Each structure stands twice: as structure tokens, then as C-alpha cells.
Peptidase M20 (Colletotrichum destructivum), 978 residues
Amino acid sequence: MAPTPTPGANDPLANFYAKVDELESVFIERLGDAVKIPSISAQADRRKDVFEMSEWVAAKMRTVGIDVTLKPLGKQAGTDLELPPLVLGRYGKDPQKPTVLVYCHYDVQPASLEDGWKHEPFVMTVEDNGRLCGRGTSDDKGPLIGWINMIEAFQKVDVDVPANLVFCFEGMEENGSFGLREALEEEADKYFADVDVVCIADVVWVSDEQLSIPQGLRGIIFYLVTITGARQDAHSGGFGGQISEPMIDMVNIMASLVDSNGKILIPGIYDNVQPVTEKEYESYKELNISEDSLYGGTGGRSLHDNQADALIARWKKPSLSLHRIENALPGAGAVTSIPAKLVGKFSIRTVPFMKAEEIDVIVRRHIQDRFASLGSKNDIEIEAYPSDWFYEDAGHWNYQAAIRATRNVWGVDPAMTCEGGSIPIALDFKKILKKNVLLLPVGRPTDGQHSTNEKLDKSNYINAIKLYGSYLREAATLWRENKNRVSSA
Amino acid sequence: MAPTPTPGANDPLANFYAKVDELESVFIERLGDAVKIPSISAQADRRKDVFEMSEWVAAKMRTVGIDVTLKPLGKQAGTDLELPPLVLGRYGKDPQKPTVLVYCHYDVQPASLEDGWKHEPFVMTVEDNGRLCGRGTSDDKGPLIGWINMIEAFQKVDVDVPANLVFCFEGMEENGSFGLREALEEEADKYFADVDVVCIADVVWVSDEQLSIPQGLRGIIFYLVTITGARQDAHSGGFGGQISEPMIDMVNIMASLVDSNGKILIPGIYDNVQPVTEKEYESYKELNISEDSLYGGTGGRSLHDNQADALIARWKKPSLSLHRIENALPGAGAVTSIPAKLVGKFSIRTVPFMKAEEIDVIVRRHIQDRFASLGSKNDIEIEAYPSDWFYEDAGHWNYQAAIRATRNVWGVDPAMTCEGGSIPIALDFKKILKKNVLLLPVGRPTDGQHSTNEKLDKSNYINAIKLYGSYLREAATLWRENKNRVSSA
């Protein structure tokens, strides 16, 4: 059951909202024009379309007066492909307003009719139920164009856009975001120097029935454990019982990491995990999340049978997953061979306030101790690839503005949630710009962002435009209050 | 250091041996003719050459008076390819002689110059050091043609071949021996009805420096353990900690089977293992086996640092090897995915007098108990594919004849050894014909039977012919003695 959009009639942005509604068909047509360009970043033969899309976005931005700069990112490492540019833009430079950096991306996932699309994926179809169907409608062209639409609507009701805007629109998000981090580092003290907060419009609600704003993302430390025995695979008939087998060490180490109930067995791993408060626990009980969202993906193998515990396991607790054990030598080897070299892959999802460096120390010590206890004749090597968790204080005016705006536009309070996976971009913005980063949802989890028949509900598209406007207005108000409080303190 | 061939001058077969030596160049030319036909059974486009080879073998057999029957084996299952025939033959039907079934194969492994051969693999090159180089010289055309050569040499010195011979020459040995088992079952009471013993001439010495006759082969029980969780792989970010992971159960089960020192941890598994006698242990110490044969394949990861213990581990003890853990759903999945369904593969090498059915019971019970102890929400399934160990009493006249013949021809006693791997054909002959089966080595382990630059030493080729003759003579003598003893008892 989707919530009914009910922007308050007494909202000072009532004229703006009305204009957005009035321009609905223009905005929908605009999204349709964007969908037509198959800007698939992961397909080399579509790279030219990604470039065309960057030009299209830049042109649309210019029509509403945004000062656009295309920042080239050079070649894609290991290829002859030119990376699509960052489309940077500035709108407004009023010192009496906060400056909000807006991130979206203009590239899309691959799509073709043969994959099972009902309609041609690069021709937007408006279905009777109001769904805007087409690749990129939800991820992320709809959310991106919404910002341009918002400026246009403000202009048409002759109201100042409430905040200064800095745009950072990327064309490689669906293909590794190559070049983004370096560009952020390069521009942190230049183009982005005056940014107060960041708003990333590339996430969805926690459930179709539950509006939400995620304030936390788990981190990940990805581990490769390599165990090396003989120089080549041995035949188990000829050598079984005589030769030291890396696989035996590997399964022993893997089995020592986590139990079948999901409990991590590495001593000290839970030491810095933030406890779940009773209030949080109660709030998780109340969330309106469908059974399918909650348990569908587990195929009846959920370790928890109630919503709060399941969500806490996903969002608030670390987890350790064993991914695979791979033969590290070329060739598959006979089915009865004894593999000579193996790579075991596992990862730890981390949460506030675990410290990646400390975790790495205790994980390595645990593995080395376990390996030593086996008395193996093989060699072991451990590699770790950490990426931090992300957690923002929802008390920050950036979040409070988003919460108020959601209430203003959708008429309901958003739930403050987390996500189990990481969004590296969010962390990059936070670490490099050192500003509060907001993930502002536009679409719904069933939009099919990376699958067939991607859609964006018309209500979500139109309300996103209103949400952006309201968010900027609330942000400006809170920023000013906050500034006055600080200066008068 | 190769032993010097010294057939005793006082051997009653002295004339036969001299004739073999005299015909050396004829015999070598004959092997060269056989090598020219690239009878590669594993390559569909060479199947016609395998058929040509069967005709060539049949024709050569007929020239020495063997009564030849080509037994068609029908189509290769799942293909349109006709299986090459079994070339069956009979020579002699004297009730005063034992009847020896001789098995060899006339197909070969693939080979091409690009693989790194010094010479064209299907043109036999006689090197200065006496090596006969070419695909199939050692495996198994040399050993096969040796039987025909033997009959010719006996005929030319006007001496009766000492035993009746039944030939069974196969053309699919290097590609699964399809059809052989069924043919053996079909002919057991017909073509093979009067067979007294079997001699398989398709093995090599235990080491280049150590003549040997293997009397035992380990069996194998191959296990597939399937653990099923969700219907599809899950993302470890979204579901890690909430979902029950098959990989965690799998590594726990695998780790419970065997330790890093090669000790099998399944209770009762060693119960019926035949103890190694002091005499055996001492004899293993004495074997002349190179360091490289013994430890080369282990790359410094041998669990045993002396010859007797290493050989016992390979030959006389069961072993349990962990082969791999594979994703059982199509597609590799993201590197951070939680696999939904896994197949773990391991095998147990069995030795006398373990009973496959009993072993299977205790293995399944162990795995099920372990799985139950994990409290997992997943499902488990266990499949077993057993193939028995092979062990013959060296006191049988078939073995004693081979031992005496080795001494007669090579001047040294062969070591009675085992092999760690299984030879399914040996077991098939034993189980179906229910006769004593001898594995009579011709070549050396460094002949490169399945690799590049395959060779057969000229001394091994020529001495095999003498060995066959001597073996049949000793067999006939012992058979008669044995018969008289039995009838007078």
C-alpha cells in the first residue's frame, strides 16, 4: 500500500507544488527524452551514448541557468575507452544560503528486449497505473532530472531556489565509478570547497510500503586467504595420505570463523559494536515492511523469525559470510585431484563503531593461530580489502531537513533505517569532503533498478521534485537557525 | 640406473630369447608401423583411425595364426560415434595348457607437435640411446604387439607357445573404456568361459630403478555432499547475518572428516584396514625408488619423510582427500554473494579389507551427525560412488609365474608393490570373470605415457617379448603342478 501524497496546503511552497503538478506532462516527456539515450556504461559500444547523455544533461542544466563544467576523467584504466565526464554545475552563490552538493548519475544498467522486458527498454512507456517504465527511470535519470525540474518550477512561480546548489553528475556509477574518487580529491578544495552538505539521490525506500531515510550502511572487509601446498595439483590416488592438502587447512580455517547460526567466532569481534537501544528495537518492530521484502530472499532460511531481529541482523550487527573456495592454479584439474593452491574468500560486514584496523588485527591473529594449531606443512597468506561503514547522525540539519520535507510532501514521517550493503560513493563523499552526507530516497525497492521492466511511479517522480524543493527550503531554514545558534553561543 | 637384462643362458627358452634378439629390427619396425596410425580415442575426428588400428591389429594377429573376432560395441552413449570394436583372439586350445586372457589396448592419448614433442609424435623415432619415441610406444602399442612378436618368435624356433591365449584388445581405454564392462559380462560364459587367469599388460614399474609387480590397488568412494539453502544466491550486504549460509555448514562438515596430518576423523574408518607387517615395512625400506618419484610430486609437502612411511601412506592406508566446493547453481555469482547451493566433493581411498558398504554407512552417519550438531536451517544430501580396492594373493601361480619370468629375463626379483590409484579394468576383469588378475609391467614410470615425448626403452620392448614367453612357460609349469597337487590331494 503506497502512502498517499498529501503536501500540506498551508505549506509555504504551495505555489511551487502546484506548478510542479501543472508541469507534470512536460517533466514526464523530459524523462522520456532521457530514457531514449541508452547510456550503458558497462558496454564499450555504448560509451558514445554515455557521452551523448552527458551532453544532453549539460544542455538541460543550462536551460535553467546552471553554470555547467564538464570535467574529463581520462581513460578507463586497462582500456582505450575514454571515461565519460563528470557533469559539474553550480546554481546560486548567495552567502545567506547553504550550499548543497547534489549527486546523481546519468549512466544506466544494460537492458534489451530479449532479457524479458514488456516494452522496449529505451522507449519510456507510461502505463495506465501511472508507472513510467524504461531503463533508468528510477536509477537514476528520474531522480537526476528532478533537480532540473525543481529549478524550473521555482523559476516559473518566481521563487528563489532556497539553497545554492553544486551538482556532481556521474556517468560511470554502474561500472565501478572509475575516476570519481580521484576527481573528488582533486576538486575537494576547489569546485567543492564551499559545499556545506551532500545529498545523494540514488537510493530507494526500505520497502514499497515504508518511506525511509537510511542513516547507516554497513562496511565490508573482504578477505582473501591463500593456502599453498605442492607446486601442482596431485592425484589423490597416487598421493592421498602422503601429501599435505591445502583444502583441509582451508575448511578448518573457514569453519573457525562463524557458526551455522551466524555467530562470528573470532574473539573480540563484537567489542565495539554499538548496542541496539530499546527504542530502536521497538521502532524496527513498527516498520511497515512486507513479508516478502523481509524473508523473500532467504527462501525460508532466515535465522530470525521476527522483523526486528531480522533487521537488526542485517543492519546493526556485523556478519561474516563465506563466499567461495577457489582453485588458484590455472585449469580445473581432475575431479579427484588434490588442489595445490587455494584461495578462500570471505567478508565481514562491519557496523558502527567497529574499527577496521583493529578488526583486521584480530582476524589475522585468529586465522594465524588456527593455522598454527593445525600443524600444517602448507603456507598461508592473508589479504584484506576494507571499506568502512557509513553512519550519520540524524540530528544534523541535513537529515532533519530531509525528514521534514518527507513529512511535508508525503504526509508521513520517514523511518530512519540502515542498509546492510555498502555504497562506496557515500563513503567517498564523506571521507573526502568531510561533510554530512544524506542519502535521499526517490524510488521504491520494487522499481527493478538492475533488472527487467525498470519503472518509476509517476507519484515518486513528481513528488521527488517537490521533495527536493521542500528539502532545500527546510535545509536553508535549519542552516540559518544553526548558524545563528553557533554565532550567538 | 636401469637393471641389466641377463636372461640365463641355461634357460630352456634360450633359443626363443635368441630369436627375439635376432628379430629385434623387425619388431621395432612393426611398432613403428603401429605408431603411424593416430588412434586417439578421445578425439571424434580420429575415431576412423582407431578403427583402422583395430584392423591393423587384427591383420597382424592373423599373420601368426590367431583366430580373430572383432566384437562391435555399438554407439558411444550420447554421441553418434561408433565405438571401436574389441579385438578378440584365440591361439591354441590344448587342454594340457592353461588358458591366459591377455588384455591390452590399441588406442592412444592425444598428441601433437605443438604440445612440445621433440619429434613428430606419430612417426616413431629411434634415438641413439635406444629409446623408441612416439605416441603409444609404451601405452599400450608396444606391450600389445609384444604378444604377437612372442608367438612369431616361438614359431620361428619351432617351440609351442606354452599356454593357450585369449586376447582382448580394447580401443577405448584412454576414453572411459565405454562398452568394455558390458562386453565382459556378455562374454564371461562364452568367449572367456575357459580362461584360467588374466594378464593385463598396461602398467609400468614402480620406479625406473625398481622392477615391480603391483598386487594391490586402492579403491575409491567418491562423495558428493549437496547443501541447499535459499532458492538463489543472496547478497552478503543485504542478507549477511540474517540468512542461513550453506558454505558454513559445508566447511564444518569437510573439516570434520580429516585433519591436516592426513588422519581420517570418521570413527571406525580404520577398523578393517589390514595391518602392515614388519616384513612389508622392511621390504618397503629396501625398494630402490628415486627421491623424485617418492617426493617430487609433493613439492616439499610430504607428510612423511622416509620411504617406507610414505609408501605405506600411499599404498596400504586409506586416505581422505577434499577436492573442491562448487557452486551448484548456474553462474558464478558476485564475489560477495552468499551461495545458495553447494556441492562438496571428497573421496576416500580404500584398502584391503575395508568394506565399501560398511564404510558408506559410517561416513553418512558421521556427516549427518555433524550436520545435526550445527543446528542448520539448510538441507543436506549425500551421494556415494564406490569402486572397490583390488588385491591379489601373490602366492597364486599367475603371480609366481610373473615373478619367476621377471627373474629369468631381467635377472632380478621384482618388488611386490601396490598402487595408490585404482585401475577400474583390473577390478572389472576380476569381478566379472572371477579369475586371478595379474598386472604385468612392461614400461617405466618416466615413459611419459600421458604426456609429451612418450617413449619405450628398446630393452623394455624386447624384454617384454621374452618376459611374455617366460611367463607363459612358468605359468604352464605351475598350473600343471598345481593341477596335479589338487587332483592328488
The first strand of chain B starts at residue 67 and ends at 71. Confidence is low (pLDDT under 50) at residues 1-5 of chain B. Chain B touches chain A through 71 residues (CB under 8 Å). Residues 41 and 172 of chain B are 6 Å apart (CA to CA).
